[in-house]
Amino acid sequence: MTFHVERPRWPRDPRARLGLALLGSIVLLATFGPLFTGDPTAPVAPPLAPPSWAHLLGTTGQGQDVLAQTLAGARVTLGVGFVAGLGAVLLGATVGAVAGYAGGWVDDALSLLTNVTLVLPGLPLAVLLAAWLPPGPVSLVAVLVSTGWAWNARVVRAEVLQLRRRDWVAAARLAGEPPLRVVLVEILPNLRPLLAAALVGATIYNLGAQVGLEFLGLGDPGAVTWGTNLYWAANDGALLTRSWWTFVPTGAGVAAVGLALALLQAGLTADAGSGAPVDTPVARPAPRRLPARDGRSQETA
């Protein structure tokens, strides 16, 4: 029986490590920062007050502290983005793995569903679904997962089509393992770097789409998120009054998260490309020499 090589631990690429460090710092600020900035919805100063020592990033059009709203909004926005990204990858990986491994009419049906979903314009469809569903984080997660899973399904299906021809997959079949166990235990673990890169990419898309939908007023206007921060800044005429402090911190936060995720995805993609699974040759015993009747030796396996 042949065996597949165990892939080295990742991330190894320095871009992935830098992105992971930057993302970890942002997550720490989003997790513990609101504990020190107070209630982000409480008026604390005159509206549209510029940055000062009392309020480092100024106040909003309703007199709320911009720093408190930025840190509190990061917690919700990152949470929705990561959950939606994980849901899209899990759904896409499931559909792609089943289609690639099963083949036949199952592959044809799931591939047709995937292609139809990819043909539909994602952002307009997300706008329609978000306008139809009640506002809130749960609805946003449902919208983002339902519109973002298809690309992951196509990528996973292509990889599974290659991996199912490996000798160790054939050995698992001959050993009597059920198809679900073969997919979950034998095939999907070999796609971990690929799935990790797909998760980061899906999170990048979902963060941008979430902020865009909430900026259009399709989120919960009473919640404190990065998207609603931009929504209220636009409603308060921040550009007309040149109150840059009401939207620049949120924009900088979105850019920082996008940069961290982009670096992490680039590093994970490089690791996935350099660590493709291969089959290890079978170790065969050395031939033994046996004496022949004519006095000469001959080899036998």
Task: Throw out a few tags for this protein.
two-stranded antiparallel ribbon; mainly alpha; disordered N terminus; 301 residues; MetI-like fold; single chain; two-stranded antiparallel sheet
Please name the CATH architecture.
Orthogonal Bundle
* Number of distinct helices: 13
Biggest sheet descriptor: 2 strands, antiparallel
Largest sheet: spatial strand order: 1-2
Write down the Rg.
26 Å
Instruction: Quote the average pLDDT.
Output: 83
Structural category: mainly alpha
Task: Describe this protein's structure.
By secondary structure, the chain is mainly alpha-helical. It has 13 helices and four strands. Strands 1-2 form a two-stranded antiparallel sheet. Helix 1 (14-32) runs antiparallel to helix 13 (248-274).
Summarize the structure.
This protein has 301 residues and is mainly α. It has helices at residues 14-32, 34-37, 66-102, 104-119, 122-132, 137-148, 150-163, 167-174, 179-187, 192-215, 226-235, 238-241, 248-274, and strands at 3-4, 279-280, 288-291, 297-300.
